[in-house]
Every structure is written in structure tokens, then in C-alpha cells.
């Protein structure tokens, strides 16, 4: 390029000025206005001050309309790409143990990890309601970055939209993620076989109960916190001792019962749980008894279900127990040949009942 050309020189200088300016933006307003979604200076200042400032990394700092990566470096980590997307509309935005930002990062990280993938990059798109406090958005972004750092993932691209007051409820977030699946790892519900062991990494229902209490609709005071946490490090620990995991899934909406029903239907087998091994906090049991809920269907945001051949189950449980997010891991059931597509629960009374697929939603907007 000939920089003596006046037009080229002006364009080059304009780009340099814009690049400097993009890191100097500062939100002056205390609340989101429609101008913050207009594409002009108010929007740029919002993006710079809230998102670029918090998520800053070499890819994001280029401020392109997309993030680009070298395929060769990705292929060195595995032979398949995992890609997922999810939207978060939780109410309230902040709750004991987390908030919508932490949830958005961990939820997408965990969806990638359930394939055995190493999560690498996230996108972050936000829909803001006019009138949202800027400080609320700033706090959410800071928590997203903290969660991303803990999970070892980068937020590299995103989008911001503002809708008029009443057209949304404060703040919605969409995150998409990509990761690399290591060579030789093949995790799928279709791999499940009779005789397999079913393992979980801890207590059930904490997230659903924490959200319910945080809404303030019940005169209850407890110390229940959401279990919102990244699971990719735990998955890596599991795969290090046993790459031949048959199936794995995080028990979010619909809880443990929904995951196991999906497994049974996909693989054409039955699953029998043993109630004595299911961990449920007394406070969560109390909430469920009060409202007629079943903790098997309550949402979790830091629990994964692992199905593995019985011969490998003990070594997997031992590895999980060595990890902070798997210290309460245990075998909770087994895969049986029949009845096909059915989940059974052996109760503490010695009886057996069917754990059916949840119809409808026990508790809306929990993620």
C-alpha cells in the first residue's frame, strides 16, 4: 500500500484514531437508554466500558464482527469441534451462589464439557431492557469474566441489543461456545449398555431451591446456595483415568430424572436408581415437601451424570472424589435391559416406583 496517497493515509489515520478511541469509551448514564442500542457513540461507550474492559483478550480487542482462529492450532488439541448455544433468562438476576452472568458462562462451558470437549471460546450476546441500571450490567459482566477465567475460557465476540421498557425483563444473555474433543473420546447416550453404572457428583436440587427462595415469594430463610460451577476440569479428571465414558450430561432443567429418562429412551434400556445413595440437603427436602416438588426434577447447575462400564466405575468415582467439584461422587444406580425406556427408583422403604419424564415445568425461568 502506498501511504503517500492522501485518501489511504486519511483512512489509516482514521483507523488508528478509532482504535485508540475504542478503549477510552466511558458510560456516563446510570441506566440503559435506547441510545445504547443505536449503533452510535453511546453504544460504543457501553461496549468499551462494560464488555471490552472486562473481557479483554487479544482476539476480542481487535473488535471485528467475528472471532477468527488458526485451524492448525485447534487440530493439535483434538479431531472434532464441539459447538453449543444457550440463552439465559433467570429470575432474579442475582441469587445465592451466582447470577445470570456466572450462569451463562458455566452453563455453556458445561454443555461443551459433557461431550468430553475442552471448552475454548465463548460469544456473549445481551438483550437489555431500557431502564436497566448500568451498574447491574457492569456487575454481571465482571462476574462473567471471573467465571470465564475460572473455567479457562475466553469470551471473544458478542452483540448488544436494547429493547424498549417492558419488551424484556431487565437482561437476557445468550452464550455460544466452541471446544475441541480429544481424539479417541466418544461420549453419547447411544453407548449405554445394560450393566453400566450411573454416577453423580453430589447433592441434588440446590440451584432450583436457591432460585425459588431468592424470589422472595415464600417466607423462608435458608443458607441454600446454587451449585453453579464449571465442570470441565472435573470431566478432564474423569477422562484422564477412563477415556471410555459411555455417556455424560449435566442435570440442569428437569433435573436428574429428565437426564436419566433421556438416556433410557435414547439407548433403549432401563435404569434403576437406589434412593439411599441420592444426596439431597435437608433444607431442599423441606422446600420440596412444602411445595409438593420432587428433588429429582429440580434444576442443578453444577452436577453431571456419568454412565460408564461397571468395571471402570470405582476408578471413576475415586478420581471424581479427588476433585473439589466431585468430592461427594457416588454410584446411584445401574443400567438394566428392561423395561426399555423406563427409569425406576428403589425407595428406602424397599418398594419400587417409576420416575417418569417431567410434564411441563416445575419452576420456570431457573436458568
Describe the structure.
The chain is an alpha+beta fold and 367 residues long. The chain has helices at residues 6-22, 41-55, 71-75, 100-113, 134-151, 206-214, 232-241, 255-267, 282-291, 310-321, and strands spanning 80-88, 94-95, 98-99, 118-129, 154-163, 171-181, 197-200, 247-250, 270-274, 304-308, 330-336, 343-346, 352-354. The chain has two domains: 15-181, PurM-like, N-terminal domain (60s Ribosomal Protein L30, Chain: A), CATH 3.30.1330; 189-354, Alpha-Beta Complex (Phosphoribosyl-aminoimidazole Synthetase, Chain A, domain 2), CATH 3.90.650.10. The longest helix has 18 residues, at 134-151. The protein starts with 5 loop residues before the first helix and ends in a 13-residue tail after the last strand.
What helical percentage do the residues reach? 25-40%
Number of structural units classed as domains: 2
CATH topology of the largest domain, by name, is: 60s Ribosomal Protein L30, Chain: A
CATH top level class name of the largest domain: Alpha Beta
Strand content: 15-25%
Class per helix and strand makeup = alpha+beta
CATH architecture of the largest domain: 2-Layer Sandwich
What is the molecular shape?
globular
Structural Rg: 23 Å
Low-confidence segments, given as residue ranges, are 1-22
User: CATH superfamily assignment of the largest domain?
Assistant: PurM-like, N-terminal domain
Summed up:
The chain has 367 residues and is α+β, with helices and mostly antiparallel strands.
Amino acid at each position: 500500500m502506498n501511504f503517500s496517497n492522501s485518501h489511504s493515509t486519511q483512512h489509516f489515520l482514521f483507523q488508528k484514531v478509532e482504535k485508540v478511541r475504542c478503549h477510552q469509551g466511558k458510560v456516563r448514564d446510570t441506566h440503559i437508554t435506547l441510545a445504547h442500542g443505536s449503533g452510535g457513540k453511546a453504544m460504543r461507550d457501553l461496549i468499551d466500558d462494560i464488555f471490552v474492559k472486562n473481557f479483554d483478550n487479544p482476539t476480542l480487542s481487535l473488535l471485528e464482527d467475528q472471532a477468527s482462529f488458526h485451524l492448525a492450532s485447534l487440530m493439535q488439541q483434538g479431531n472434532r469441534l464441539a459447538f453449543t448455544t444457550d440463552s439465559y433468562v433467570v429470575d432474579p438476576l442475582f441469587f445465592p451462589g451466582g447470577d445470570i452472568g456466572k450462569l451463562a458462562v458455566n452453563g455453556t462451558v458445561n454443555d461443551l464439557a459433557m461431550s468430553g470437549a475442552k471448552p475454548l471460546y465463548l460469544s456473549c450476546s445481551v438483550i437489555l431492557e431500557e431502564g436497566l441500571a448500568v451498574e447491574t450490567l457492569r456487575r454481571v459482566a465482571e462476574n462473567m469474566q471471573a467465571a470465564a477465567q475460572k473455567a479457562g475460557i475466553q469470551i471473544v465476540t458478542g452483540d448488544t441489543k436494547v429493547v424498549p421498557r417492558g419488551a424484556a425483563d431487565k437482561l437476557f444473555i445468550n452464550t455460544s461456545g466452541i471446544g475441541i474433543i480429544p481424539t479417541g473420546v466418544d461420549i453419547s447416550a447411544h453407548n449405554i449398555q445394560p450393566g453400566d453404572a450411573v454416577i453423580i457428583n453430589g447433592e441434588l436440587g440446590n440451584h432450583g431451591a436457591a432460585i425459588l427462595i431468592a424470589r422472595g415469594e415464600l417466607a423462608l430463610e435458608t443458607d441454600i446456595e446454587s451449585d453453579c460451577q464449571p465442570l470441565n476440569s472435573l470431566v478432564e479428571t474423569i477422562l484422564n483415568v477412563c477415556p471410555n465414558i459411555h455417556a455424560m450430561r449435566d442435570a440442569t432443567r428437569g433435573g436428574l430424572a429428565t437426564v436419566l429418562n433421556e438416556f433410557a429412551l435414547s439407548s433403549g434400556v432401563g435404569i434403576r436408581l437406589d434412593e439411599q445413595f441420592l444426596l439431597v440437603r435437608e433444607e431442599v427436602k423441606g422446600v420440596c415437601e412444602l411445595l409438593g416438588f420432587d428433588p429429582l426434577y429440580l434444576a442443578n447447575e453444577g452436577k453431571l451424570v456419568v454412565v460408564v462400564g461397571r468395571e471402570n466405575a470405582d476408578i471413576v468415582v475415586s478420581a471424581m472424589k479427588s476433585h473439589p467439584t466431585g468430592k461427594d461422587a457416588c454410584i446411584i444406580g445401574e443400567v438394566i435391559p428392561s423395561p426399555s425406556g423406563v427409569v425406576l427408583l428403589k425407595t428406602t422403604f424397599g418398594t419400587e416406583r417409576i420416575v417418569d419424564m417431567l410434564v411441563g415445568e416445575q419452576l420456570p425461568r431457573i436458568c
